[in-house]
Write a structure and sequence with these properties.
alpha/beta; Rossmann fold; seven-stranded parallel beta sheet; 7 strands; about 50% helix; about 15% strand; globular
């Protein structure tokens, strides 16, 4: 099903993205990575920095007009800590990579997909985009925006032959999980998944052209509960939020 598909993926130089890219290539896809450094096992490479407006616009220019069957927006950056302690530069880069870049790249590939009457845009969000955790404020809000964009875009392109897939993993054991996040996970009993398992679920969702996929239990259950009864989730998370706050009071 993925054989000879032309795939553009961001974040392929990371632990999770590299696994996804290699799995797609193993299934016969022609994978092009877009990012700052070239990963192993890809068909092509476009070197651009999605964290800056200038780098992103250069990437959009490089992508436009080329044949893409699948766009996978997987690149992500994360700030863990009180929101007032995040630098302006890191805040801007976070929203650029996590939200603005996926939207701009979708704009770049959509005309060709619509003209051919087929295509797939895959946005890799996070459980944090549905359950907005304290001390992950900018990351959670960017991923919430990506989730909303995915839903709105799906409605906009309905009937065009273009599918929109949104996959929300929970925490994954990659370089983005810092020692402090690991400490947070230990004191709050937060689950962290192996990247191999998560990559397999992402590829499965792409292959099946799924709409919305939320990974992990009980997190997937809390996504639905938070949508219906956010006050209840507030109370459930309050103790963990106080524990997390102590990490930054030392």
């Amino acid at each position: 099903m993925l054989e000879r598909k032309s795939v553009l993926i961001t974040g392929a130089s990371g632990g999770l993205g590299g696994l996804v890219a290699r799995q797609l290539a193993a299934e016969g896809a022609h994978v092009t990575a877009l990012g700052r450094s070239r990963p192993d096992g890809v068909h092509g490479f476009l070197q651009h920095d999605l964290a800056t407006p200038e780098g992103l616009e250069a990437a959009v220019t490089a992508v436009k007009g080329r044949h893409w069957d699948i766009l996978i927006n997987l690149a992500g950056v994360q700030h863990f800590g009180p929101v007032e302690q995040e630098s302006a530069a890191d805040l801007l880069a976070g929203y650029m990579v996590n939200l603005v870049a996926p939207v701009r790249l979708a704009q770049a590939v959509l005309p060709g997909m619509k003209a051919r009457g087929k295509g797939q845009i895959v946005n890799i969000g996070s459980i944090f985009g549905s359950i907005n955790f304290a001390h992950f404020a900018t990351y959670s809000s960017a991923k919430a925006g990506l989730r909303g964009f995915s839903q709105a875009l799906r409605r906009e392109v309905a009937g065009s032959g273009v599918d929109v897939t949104y996959v929300a993993p929970r925490a994954v054991r990659t370089a983005m999980v810092s020692d402090r996040v690991l400490e947070y996970a230990k004191i709050t009993q937060m689950n962290i998944d192996a990247p191999e398992a998560t990559a397999g679920r992402i590829v499965q969702a792409i292959r099946a052209r799924r709409r919305d996929v939320y990974l992990g239990f009980p997190e997937a259950f809390f996504v639905r509960l938070n949508a219906l009864l956010p006050g209840l989730v507030d109370r459930a998370l309050a103790a963990n939020d106080r524990k997390a706050a102590q990490l930054f009071a030392r």
